[in-house]
Amino acid sequence: MRTKKQKLKGIIVWDFDRVLFDTDRMVDDNNEIFAKYDISPELIRSILDKANIQEGPFSWALLVRRLKNKKKGVPLNSIKREMQSNLLSGRYVRSEASKVLKNLKSNGFANMLLSFGSPPYQYQKIKKGCGPQFCRYFDETAVTLGKKYLKFRSLVKKFSNIPIFFIDDTNEHLAMVKKHTPSVHTLQYSAQSPLGAVEEWIHEQVQRYDSSGNHSARG
Ligand SMILES: [Mg+2]
Questions:
Q1: How far, in Å, is the centroid of ligand 1 from the Cα of 74?
Q2: pLDDT in tens, 99-108
Q3: How many Å is the Cα radius of gyration of the chain?
Q4: Rounded distance from Cα 153 to ligand 1 centre (Å)
Q5: For 5-22+93-211, CATH number?
Q6: In the chain, what are the domain boundaries?
Q7: How far is the CA of 55 from the centre of ligand 1 (A)?
Q8: Ligand 1 midpoint to CA 37 (Å)
Q9: Which regions of the chain are under pLDDT 50?
């Protein structure tokens, strides 16, 4: 993260799944692959629910272990290869993501990626699924299975004189951040609407922040 505070206009903390990444499309594609091998989405769902995995994304290692027990003779390596090939094609990164991240970065904002999930799996989606250029738009990338709001405590302390934004689709994360660090400007956003609207919202918030004079305005 850059530390020249006077040059930084704001910090944008982005969620990954269903914000910058089309997770639902990936899940649909994966279910199609499973279906070819006679594995129903319901079976996958029940395995994942039982494992108590939140947020939809599955852990491949866990799924393989469970499937091996439940369905004999499933070509797990072929399934994995097909999924990997979809992921590597870059089809799940939101089409506008690069443009919006690049615009904001060149306008003086720092982008930070804060993703919830199992780190090996999330990093695979981020690095392999979105590519090196996408990764370069972020000053920092973090994956956690812990509480997202904890990250904001240090951010708010360190960058007390610039606005901090948090874009996420999950109400639980947003509510906790609002509660524990109320100066953070939060936006509930999901991949259904254009990402350009988020960019506009950020610029509006900055204008308000600047014109409010006192930099303790709540967003
Ligand atoms: Mg999400």
A1: 31
A2: 999 999 999 9
A3: 19
A4: 20
A5: 3.40.50.1000
A6: 5-22+93-211, 23-88
A7: 7
A8: 29
A9: 3-6, 55-56, 216-219
C-alpha triplet 16, 25, 36: angle, nearest 5° = 135
Centre of ligand 1 from the C-alpha of residue 180, in Å = 19
Neighbouring residues of the ion ligand 1, judged by CB less than 5 Å: 15, 17-18, 169
Residues constituting the chain? 219
User: How does DSSP assign 34-86, residue by residue?
Assistant: HHHTT--HHHHHHHHHHTT--SSPPPHHHHHHHHHHHSTT--HHHHHHHHHHH
Amino acid 215: pLDDT = 56
Structure-block tokens of residue 73: 């003779």
Can you give the pLDDT at residue 111?
Answer: 98
Task: State residue 218's pLDDT score.
Answer: 46
pTM equals 0.88
